[in-house]
Amino acid sequence: MSRKTKSVFLERRAYRQRRFADGARMLPLFGAALFFIPLLWSLTDDKVTLTSYVMSFVFLSWVGLIIISAFVSSKLPKDMPDAAPAKDE
Amino acid sequence: MATLNVLIVVSLLYVVLLFTVAFAADRAALHGRGTWLRSPWVYTLSLSIYCTAWTFYGAVGYAARSGLEYLTIYLGPTLVMIGWWWTLRKMVRIGRSQRITSIADLISSRYGKSNLLAVFVTLLAVVGTTPYIALQLQSVTLSFAAFAEADPDAGVLNSPYTALWVASGLALFTILFGTRNLDANERHHGVVMAIALEAVVKLFALLAVGVFVVWGLAGGIDETLARIDASEIARWEVPGSRWVGVTLLSAAALLCLPRMFQVLVVENEDESHLRTASWAFPAYLMLMSLFVVPIAAIGLDLMPKGSNPDLFVLTLPLQEGREGLAILSFLGGFSSATSMVIVAAIALSTMLSNHVVMPIWLRMTGNMAVMSGDVRQVALLARRLSIAGVVLLGYVYLRLSSGSEALAAIGLVSFAGVAQLLPALLGGIFWRGATRSGAMTGLLVGFAIWLYALFLPSFGASVIISQDVMDHGPAGIGWLRPRALFGAQGMDPLVHAVMWSMLLNTFSFIFVSVLTFPKPLERLQGAQFVNVFQHSATTGSWTGGLAQSEDLLLMSQRILGPTEAQAFFTNAAAHQGLSGYLPEPSPDFLQQLERELSGSVGGATAHAMISQIVGGATVSVQDLMAVADETAQIMEYSSQLETKSQELARTARQLRVANKKLTQISDQKDTFLSQISHELRTPMTSIRAFSEILRDSDGISEADTSKYSSIIHDEAVRLTRLLDDLLDLSVLENGQVVLNTEKGSLSALLERSISAADGEKGTLDIHNHQPEKDIIIDTDLDRLAQVFINLITNARKYCDAKEPVLTITSSRNGGDVVIDFIDNGSGIPADMHAVVFEKFSRISHSRVGGAGLGLAICSEIMTRLGGQVGVVPAQQGTAFRVTLPDSATTSGVKTNA
Fold first, then answer.
1. Is B534 in Cβ contact with A31 (below 8 Å)?
2. Looking at CA atoms only, how far is residue A8 from chain B in angstroms?
3. What is the pTM of this model?
């Protein structure tokens, strides 16, 4: 009986951890998208993109990525084996 | 100005500091102290060897020339580190559980432990890394030269031999701390510590220069930004293809560079360090690249035209009179250059020694699998020579190329070269269908394209590839122009080469992998690598404890026996200076134990058992296969033994049965002989007696004489008949009887038999019942008649009814002809039914008149005729049944048809 109630809590935590793992996998793609945004700015010729502008943007997003990565890494499970994709919820 | 002298002194002191730190760290690791060695921060800092002198000096130059493009070199690794959960974690897990020593080891091990693949990867690594080493040496030389320019007194250090001195010093350091002993895990604690220190120094130096430039020279952040906007690099003009391409290229390089693999995977102490490094290392990279553009912009502003922008980090402080800062900056550059060369030399020497030198040496001296002291010495020597060789090669490349290209260009060419390993690497880790042939093909294709489209043209026009080929392609084939393959014109050469090489590499890798079938070892390794998370928990480190010794003792007692195991362990403990039964599970002790155990259970099993206890839960595939081999052999042997013992049991059984039969037959023979002698003696006695009387007595009357003579005659006749019967029976039994088959009528035969048998009339009343349709039989009629006569005679002799009646009936039963002879006597008792057909068997001994062979002869005759004769049970009186098959073929006998 007590085991049943315990498993409800575990499942939530495990679910959380899995979502964080998914987030961790998506993070580099998100980062790549972020870093490639400056390319969009130079599509038109009339507006001149300033190096300083791009520099500020890139470094700010860089710092943001670092902070997000630190947060996500701390939340990731310590010792969870990589579940096969088919078994993921 | 004695700047140069100060510089030299400071440099030498710094080098001494590095040596000291490395030495102390090695000592601490050896004695088991120093948990600070295992800090995730040391791990993160050691990753900084990615930032070489190219970063320190070349980034500014790169920025001065191409604006923000230099950032892409650091964005790529940032993305890879952030995505550690996906790729790096798997690589580290595989590296630890499979005890991988280098990237060549990883790739070759994944694809079935293919040494050919390892050699090729090693070659690729050496070719790709040599220019990079040359680059580092050049940067140190240039930085020395920058100081020498500022100091007119200098002369001696402004020589090309500076590079040689630096190279020798680096080789010495690496040999000293990289090849102390052969650690099975290939960890070099001293080197890692020294590199971590250098990482701090170079970050500090670059930040210091940056701070100086922004606040010292420009006067604040806003001013700096304004200066940037006013400089030559104000506009962001990085081509999109370069921005994306170089980012991806540097991401690939982080995974594939041998030196990065060394610090990321091989030197990794704990998987959880990756967790910290995943955000800390990008932070390091960000800080390193933060001030690059300000330095470049201010430098372009303040430095005289034509000065090398690569050295702004150094020359700016020098020009502004900040010698202390300049020296610090120099130390930073020196750190960057030397840390790269050291780790690269270690990584390359490991690959060269493990995959090139040792296999050749082992093959030359016969394959000895045991790591004797001799082999260890050779391995160490090979390592040291490789280190010296690699560094020397870099120096040679430097002299040959004499620093023609800008620093940055060589770096990217090198990156593009090692990036060719990426498909084979990632495919091997994630895809079980990747095969060795596929990896080999991909590598060859990628390498060839890289060589042709990027590396060789980089030497400059007409050095290796002629200008004609560059313009019109080899033999005039426009589609194979090195810078415009397959019609891709106008592309940036680097992006062009990277695109084609990676595309064709990947496609050929996938294509060939899909077509080929991997060998068993490849498939096993594939499963091990791709499913590594299912197999291994985080593998514990090698540190054993007394608890493991106890387990080992328990296990050994079971195998060696308690007394012997305890004696062995006590001895080993005494050697280690411990009292009691339990020694420390040091590698030497484990090896001795393994040898001891393999005497009893075989080498593979012993190794597997020990590594079970000491080395964590996973047993290597090779161990398993060896154990499986041994087990299979043992099983085969035991199953052979089982079959043999079964055969033996069967043979024994058969022998017992045969023996019993032979004993029976022997008994029968004895019985037969005694019976015969008895039968023969009786008439012989009469004959002798009466013939004696006739011979000896006178005056016998004529009536007596004739009476005695007729008795003698009758007895002789009887004897003759007995002998005839015996002969007949033996002939029948041996199957040498000659049968005369002919067709005849059954009833006619019966009539003949009755009249022949019933010589004395009146004693037996015979009723012969025949069917209406006469039965025609095709057999030996005389023999059959013999049987009928015998049966009728028996009835006459033994029927004990008051008025004996014999009934003969013939009928058809299926395909057989059945003739019954039934009398009205008392019959034969049930238990005698089978015995009655034996030789010399007589039911009642009261009547004389037969030797007892008649029914035996009948039985034999009927067998020869293909039929049978038997007693019919439960009849009133004796009932014999003769059965004849319709097609009366005889068995195994010569016939005169």
1. no
2. 25
3. 0.64
